[in-house]
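User: I'm putting together notes for a lab meeting next week and I want to include a structural view of one of the chains we've been expressing. I don't have a solved structure, so I'd like a prediction I can at least talk through. The sequence is below, exactly as it appears in our construct file.
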Amino acid sequence: MRPRSVFSLLLTPLLALSCASGEDASSLVLSLDLAVNQSALELDPDAQLRDDLDLFDLPAVTVYVSLEVTAADMDPVAAEWPATATDLQNFDGTAVVELEVPPGEARALDGVVFAWSEDSARVYAPSAPISMDLAAGAVEDVDLALVEANYGTISGIAPKEAIAVEIVDQMTDVILARITPDGDGSFEASDLPAHRPLYPVWNLGDAGRTPAPDLATHIPEAGGGATFPDPI
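Assistant: Thanks for the context. Below is the predicted structure for the 232-residue chain, given as structure tokens.
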């Protein structure tokens, strides 16, 4: 099991008065220093970062950031980075994510960072959402500490036609692992984050890829394991 680590990102919300549908909105701008694989930086600007199943390929792109602001009196506001290959073309070591958030009290900022390292996914998230009051025109510094997830293993039995299995984070539709099942269809993947719902995608070769979100499960504890239900 990997040791857990903590690192902080200084996030500076730049709250400026703007007009959105006739109402004041705050522009929440977050800067994150990230490491991105060179091959991802060289992707064609027109390349799609999500495939035909709308899944983000973390092993190929090596980093993914998802941020969300929620509150009782507003619809959730979400953003991701990179959203397009152009984001990677313009990357200079710092990813900038902007969310347009209505001003108000008790805005909860949450998110997750996936990073591909040593042939497996590392996952970082706040230990709890950060609550803030956003006033139009104000400037505020927020210190957001991201804690590395606990990890465990997940196993299952793939359909007999499957030549590969992808393990997907259900909350973000990000591919975290890609493995080859044994001859009897059994498979096991390690170093997957605990406490996050995961589901398999069956690669059936010429028959295409079939997601199975109805089989989603989660690893209940650090160092623990979980098993996908058998496919019907």
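A couple of points you could mention at the meeting. The two ends are 32 Å apart (CA to CA). The helical segments are 38-41, 58-61, 85-89.

User: Perfect, that's what I needed.
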